[in-house]
Amino acid sequence: MNVHSFNDVEGLRIAAEMERRGGEYYRRAAKLSHSPEAVDLLLFLAEDEGRHLAEFNRLAERVARERPDAPEYDADTNAYLSAIAAEIVFPGGLMALGAKHGFDSPQAILEGAIESEKDSILFYSALASATQDENSRAVFREIERQERGHLNQLMQMLSRIDA
């Protein structure tokens, strides 16, 4: 897992951006699906990403308050961080994932979501290991813990489909 050069606050902003992009991805995929069951699943996943986004924003704000030297970002920096987030969670974008997993099969959707969660967990683990700040490490570990819980939930949902 390649961790780009950025600080802890930027890492947390990327975490939030990854959740925002995940929610957007699932909402867009729901519009492309022809299966009512898949649409319901995609919208559920989008709502779940929204809950994670709110939580990760809260954690990022906490770290930013503790680090008054945290940088402000211009539009170019925001675009750069967004691009990093896109490549971590949904490499190739909506169409690449749609071609690989499709938008009509709940099983394929869950398999794609599980891949994404695994990539996210690796990213947060790398950030936690790389930081020198104990408070930031604790926040990254908390995000990693939450993502592992989400991964477990997705795997349970997949096992019920496979059964």
Automatic annotation (TrEMBL):
InterPro entries: Ferritin-like, Ferritin-like_SF, Rr_diiron-bd_dom. Residues 109-161 form the Rubrerythrin diiron-binding domain. One of its GO terms (molecular function) is oxidoreductase activity. Transmembrane segments: none annotated. It comes from the Bacteria. SUPFAM superfamilies: Ferritin-like. This is Ferritin family protein. It comes from Candidatus Alectryocaccomicrobium excrementavium.
